[in-house]
Amino acid sequence: MIKVGIVGGTGYTGVELLRLLATHPQVQLQAVTSRKEDGMPIADMYPSLRGRVALAFSAPEKAKLTECDVIFFATPHGVAMAQTPELLAAGVKVIDLAADFRLQDTAVFEKWYKMPHSCPELLKEAVYGLPELNRAAIKDARIIGNPGCYPTTMQLGLAPLLKAGVVDAGHLIADCKSGVSGAGRKAEVAMLFSEASDNFKAYGVSGHRHSPETVEQLGKLTEQKIGLLFTPHLVPMIRGMHSTIYARLTKELDNAALQALFEDAYKNEPFVDVMPFGAHPETRSTRSSNMLRIALHRPNDGDTVVVLVVQDNLVKGSAGQAVQCMNLMFGLEETTGLMHVPVMP
Amino acid sequence: MIKVGIVGGTGYTGVELLRLLATHPQVQLQAVTSRKEDGMPIADMYPSLRGRVALAFSAPEKAKLTECDVIFFATPHGVAMAQTPELLAAGVKVIDLAADFRLQDTAVFEKWYKMPHSCPELLKEAVYGLPELNRAAIKDARIIGNPGCYPTTMQLGLAPLLKAGVVDAGHLIADCKSGVSGAGRKAEVAMLFSEASDNFKAYGVSGHRHSPETVEQLGKLTEQKIGLLFTPHLVPMIRGMHSTIYARLTKELDNAALQALFEDAYKNEPFVDVMPFGAHPETRSTRSSNMLRIALHRPNDGDTVVVLVVQDNLVKGSAGQAVQCMNLMFGLEETTGLMHVPVMP
Amino acid sequence: MIKVGIVGGTGYTGVELLRLLATHPQVQLQAVTSRKEDGMPIADMYPSLRGRVALAFSAPEKAKLTECDVIFFATPHGVAMAQTPELLAAGVKVIDLAADFRLQDTAVFEKWYKMPHSCPELLKEAVYGLPELNRAAIKDARIIGNPGCYPTTMQLGLAPLLKAGVVDAGHLIADCKSGVSGAGRKAEVAMLFSEASDNFKAYGVSGHRHSPETVEQLGKLTEQKIGLLFTPHLVPMIRGMHSTIYARLTKELDNAALQALFEDAYKNEPFVDVMPFGAHPETRSTRSSNMLRIALHRPNDGDTVVVLVVQDNLVKGSAGQAVQCMNLMFGLEETTGLMHVPVMP
Amino acid sequence: MIKVGIVGGTGYTGVELLRLLATHPQVQLQAVTSRKEDGMPIADMYPSLRGRVALAFSAPEKAKLTECDVIFFATPHGVAMAQTPELLAAGVKVIDLAADFRLQDTAVFEKWYKMPHSCPELLKEAVYGLPELNRAAIKDARIIGNPGCYPTTMQLGLAPLLKAGVVDAGHLIADCKSGVSGAGRKAEVAMLFSEASDNFKAYGVSGHRHSPETVEQLGKLTEQKIGLLFTPHLVPMIRGMHSTIYARLTKELDNAALQALFEDAYKNEPFVDVMPFGAHPETRSTRSSNMLRIALHRPNDGDTVVVLVVQDNLVKGSAGQAVQCMNLMFGLEETTGLMHVPVMP
């Protein structure tokens, strides 16, 4: 049994980890920290866990995290990097669901996250936790920077095209739409039901933190310079993410060849589903599961390929992907504890 | 392995059965019938099942239902009773998610469902599939009438009070609220998103089919004559049911004693959660799980007890309860395949 | 032109007042105060008002409220009573959308609102602003305590029955459901989209502030002692309120006579619509309008009458009713500026 | 007073016309036809109109449409063109909210709408009813082809750029998102609440009927050949449309100059609001009003301008625009009856 601790279990990625880990057959949950809620039974905050998670939140200093095998950080940016050196020294692995270990370039990190990086020396060994593109490194990693939700869709939607060198990497457009849970469990007026319901808007159009991470990773797949225009939008739904990606073809390629690029790339992937050419994936077809689905279009038989990608932003976009990484790091079957059938309707 | 067939797999209770049975460790899915969709892969209609359910729908006559161990009917009222005699004769058990086997009184059935009952001789052996009140009979049953969604909440919310004889059974009020999936997957204008969203209404206030079934079952718990005022409402959410039940106390009873009635009644029940006195259960705390939660209130320390009951109408209110019955009928652990942690948020 | 000031224009009742007053032909908007947003154009906070409301928020001390004819308080409880004496002295009328002037009994006020009442001497002249039951007094009032949203539905739904003396006033039940905007524009976790969407729950079952106000007002309609069990619920919709009211008949009365009680009571009311007996009013049929609709039911021809009442909680339940009062106080046609057709769908 | 008839008043554009016309000071509603609902009071279908619209639906042959001044067709494609010749002959003007008179090229019409055009000779005089680009012609028109909802946003979002010749017209991308009411009031499974709620998807990615209309109209604004990639998506909200438009700049232009293009183009337009550069318009800021809002972005100071456009698809995107055209055709102030303040929240 893997002894697991969670730092910051009160947010949505924290409770989603708890939902997944509560039924994971190889996991023993040791501690869930929250300074503010020290002593409160977790199930009092999340009644969905009544009878399923018996632990109470504990203040970090009481949590004996160094006795765990792995710690998930479901915290704001900056928390994981402060604690990681001590955990590593104690032989504990770290999976950070925030951004502390996503970017190799500390200058870029500091520009976008407005804080100095406290352990740049560890960045080099940190592994970007996207199994479909990085599986081998994840297996050997001590530190995982779990990908952002949007970046997961953009990378898996673009990787086959960039690797094959068939699109103009300098003019990529990703028009992305996310459910509201992506904003987390913070009390903000803009995320109130009465504000976000029956409404649709773009946000962060002039620049969003998920951009540099995506550009850095996509850059590994091609020698072209990456130019990415990323536009996030807020959808009045709790979970779900839909990315509509536009890439201009630079090589003659018929639709069957395009489709084959994706089918070949993902044919052994348990959590990537390449749908038939021309399909319209719905976010709900992945709800509460670790599955990501992709479909390709080529409108008017023109020179632009449109890639549609859907996932549950809290699962494949966050907590599920983190568990997938944990499975790999501990030599388990990658799908262990992650085979939930999507809840649809 | 239990060989399972589903008649009518295209509706919401059908796909929910598929979701649950796809990961049930003791079930082998043999056939899912749909005359209209004969030959269509099930996963084409429900992409949530891609990679998880390989079967195609088959026309009933091709489905070899008599070779199954049990058939679930997720069909309109009237279908199950037509096929049950033949299935029983072949040694196949039947679980009907519609109303054909819920009511013992055929006159009542015919009044509310506007059709003659085609096998009244089988009604006597049909068992009402509410395990918490009827477990022993279910274990031995060949035919299960799976309870309606509203009746499940009303019965489990009222049973401890009626059995203890502490309330006026003649003036019960159940003000119930259901998510829209309760109306099924029928193309009806009133259930369109643009009609049902951002809206709330009562319906069937003057009389609803779930009333006679509830009255018949509640009558078994008390010698008083049941008087039930049941008011259903439509909530703009997909899943979830909340019943607010009002019962006038006829005996002096303090809150601790009231609470004890419920805790004692359900202390060994895996799918009934009695919350602390005064709690406010939320429907989402049961979403996609087979759990039902109850909390008690006694406003102003008056003579009326208010019982709040929540469940997922498609799981404990329908498909999950049916699987719970199947587990009992085949001697399995009652919770097999039903331990999903609710998806919240 | 009536010179109008609004204290506290940043919340939902404030912006709703602005929406209504912006097109009111007899109103000149003088000032909208907000200490926090002093100087910010109102339309920057509410882009719906771009080009329609040119004012900026002003700090209270700059707002010259004493030069207005009437001030609306769309503030938390306690603010209006602090400023009313000075305004009255300057000849300014006051309409408070909070609770400061709703309750005549200061002990009750202080018990429920946890603050002393700062001007109990003014309570006697304060008028409860429900025009359908209190029109004459409103016309002459200097201070209006604008009714709560729930109390409006409960009073208009029960008044004809209580006045006629045909129901048991000691055992009334009001099972009420409100859209989320009723909770206001406060940043609270429980009101986040990801918490309140796709969910339904009761709250405040053991006691809610709208109860004493309703009991006090209902008491004026009958000599019986009022016993009211009021259960509020939260519906995942922005606007709308639905009250399902249960009253036990104490006199023989057929359905036509019941219906006549209501039709007679409201036949001249511009904002109360008595629908045909047995109808199911939908909240959306009143969306964004000042209309309230009522329908009666008598299930199983039993001894309980069920009254269904719907309104838009922000209009007839708050800002619209306040404008209706203003019209009366200034001798205008009562419907002036309030004849919006509901937005449906 | 303008005598108005509506053909096909049972759908969402029909009821929205009724909402707007019921308070239009210069309109007298003469007839609303529906063969199926002949004789049914309109307010029985739409209780929002109780007390506001006294008419009943009438069968077309009883409706005396030729005695009206103008007929709105809120019907499926193909109905208006069948009746227009007779109406014109009787001196009645026609405003078609469907596609019969939107496309000048009958071959294109027939390809996309799968029906022959029954009066191609009238197409030449038909005027495309987008006042901001076509005002003079509308004033003199007898026949209006009212624009589609998506095309309205795409044209008003692109017109200033195309007229100024500063973007590559051959590679325009419009990633558009619509509320569900755009699908109309048809009983379709895909539009059920339980399907469309808590979900997001693209549709018609390989080709949508609003594309040819947009291309034809945009072609009038530039000598470049139009290449438009239009991707519609379905948002779980009733009303609202958000278009995210990407255009590659072909001339050096700073942000102030870009902004000036739009502000100059629309400075006298009552229903187009150019927001500050970098703003994020929300659909709800236009809810139930005829306003359309635009904001510009230029991410990373790159070569692509992103234009965000929002409107209420049923108002500026349909019924409101039709009334705006009517006002122009009858010499009224263009804003008459259309100055509703958006309902927000």
Q: Please list the strands of the largest sheet of chain A in the order they lie side by side.
A: 3-2-1-4-5-7-6
Radius of gyration of chain A: 20 Å
- Element order of chain A: H for helix, E for strand: EHEHEEHEHHEHEHEHEHEEHEEEH
* Structural class designation of chain A: alpha/beta
What's the structural domain tally of chain A?
Answer: 2
Ends apart, CA distance between termini of chain A: 34 Å
Q: So, the CATH homologous superfamily of the largest domain in chain A?
A: Dihydrodipicolinate Reductase, domain 2
What's the total count of β strands of chain A?
A: 14
Major β-sheet of chain A, in short? 7 strands, parallel
Task: Summarize the entry for a quick read.
Four copies of one chain form a homotetramer. With 345 residues, the first copy, chain A, is an alpha/beta fold. Helix content of chain A is 30%, strand content 21%.
Which features does this protein show?
345 residues, alpha/beta, Rossmann fold, seven-stranded mixed beta sheet, Dihydrodipicolinate Reductase, domain 2, homotetramer
Description of the molecule:
4 copies of one chain form a homotetramer. In chain A, strands 3-2-1-4-5-7-6 form a 7-stranded parallel beta sheet, with helices on both faces. In chain A, strands 9-10-8-11-14-13-12 form a 7-stranded mixed beta sheet. Chain A has helices at residues 12-22, 42-45, 79-89, 106-113, 120-123, 131-139, 149-164, 193-196, 210-218, 255-266, 315-329, and strands at residues 2-7, 27-33, 57-58, 70-73, 93-96, 127-128, 143-145, 172-179, 201-202, 228-235, 241-248, 272-274, 292-297, 304-311. Helices cover 30% and strands 21% of the residues of chain A. Chain A folds into 2 domains: 2-125, Rossmann fold (3-Layer(aba) Sandwich); 149-312, Dihydrodipicolinate Reductase, domain 2 (2-Layer Sandwich). Chain A is of the alpha/beta class and 345 residues long. The longest helix of chain A is centred in the middle third of the chain and has 16 residues, at 149-164. The model of chain A has no long low-confidence stretch (mean pLDDT 97). At the B-D interface, α8 of B face α8 of D.
